[in-house]
User: What shape does this take?
Amino acid sequence: MRQRRKKKTEVRVQLFINSFRCHPDEVTRILGLTPTKTWVKGDPYLKTGGPVHRGDGWSLSSGLPPATAPEEQVESLTKLIRPHTEKFKRLPRGSVVDLSCAIYAYDDSQRVFFFPVEAVKTLAAIGSYISIAYYDFTNLPPEEKPRRKSRRKKRRRRSG
Assistant: This one.
């Protein structure tokens, strides 16, 4: 058996806006920000198909590589939205704003992180929730060595 090669911890920080009753392009127009991704009800989550979105949505990511620390990604994202905080008040009624931090831990490099003060102030100003998901993959079982299939073809015995 060989050990599973450990990946570096990955972080995804995104601002999501959903539960609005208009096309996502309207959210883009109101905020004056170019989203990373938008979707409408019924769009598949993946390009290959599968489950579909149950509502319209709009998202903006930090734009930093996934190996970047979460606090750096949060600060980068909030710097993007800080000049537009007043515009968030004009979002359609029912809109839900959520800063999502997903940490996929494959090593011990990212156990604790913090939110910079200015980032917290910006998130409060736009009425954002903060969601944090921490996925601990540091104790994955060893990966078994893949078995090679034999290239020899089995011969059929002829009877008779």
Remarks:
- The helical segments are 24-31, 70-81, 117-125.
- The chain has three helices and seven strands.
- The mean pLDDT is 84.
